[in-house]
Design brief:
Layout lengths: L6 H5 L5 H10 L12 E5 L4 E7 L8 E6 L2 E6 L5 H5 L12 E6 L4 E9 L2 E8 L28
Antiparallel strand pairs: 1-2, 2-7, 3-4, 4-5, 6-7
Length: about 160
């Protein structure tokens, strides 16, 4: 596997620390990739997204969802009760091992709701860009431009 030195990138940029960390994480390699539980990420609309995770065997009390800054963390810990300890399995194919999934969120992406149905956890996300961060036209010498060209907002 190739190793990439991102030091020149860090030296020539200001305020892009999170972007550098994302690149560094992505280039670490597949050997550290976690595959449990499986998940889908969907784009539902212009600013609406959904993450759906297969969490069979977990109940609402077993799953914790935390959103802090630009990180969404989904943690699952199945709690075995006395009835489960007395059961004898001939084959146990439904994995209920503990997990932690982390998703990096773009700026201004917020979690709006989470639902658990039929063994699928669905987390809805929406991007809400504040007015102060939307593109605006700047007047030169106090004179408003005659022609305003509106740009399409970035996806």
């Amino acid at each position: 596997m190739r190793n990439f030195d991102l030091t020149p990138l860090f030296r020539s940029t200001v305020g892009f620390d999170r972007l550098g960390d994302l690149l560094d994480t992505a280039l670490r390699g597949e050997e550290q990739a976690v595959s449990y539980p499986p998940y889908n990420i969907e784009k539902l609309g212009e600013d609406d997204y959904a993450i759906t995770m297969a969490v069979a065997g977990f109940g609402e009390a077993d799953i914790e969802i935390t959103s802090h800054d630009n990180l969404l963390v989904v943690t699952g810990r199945a709690q075995a009760d006395a009835a489960d300890k007395q059961r004898v399995f001939l084959h146990k194919g439904i994995g209920t091992r503990a997990f932690e999934r982390k998703f990096s969120l773009a700026d201004h992406v917020k979690v709006t709701e989470a639902t658990l149905a039929n063994g699928l956890l669905s987390v809805k996300l929406v991007r809400e860009v504040p007015e102060a961060h939307k593109p605006r036209t700047i007047a030169i010498n106090g004179v408003a431009p005659k022609k305003v060209i509106e740009g399409k907002k970035a996806a």
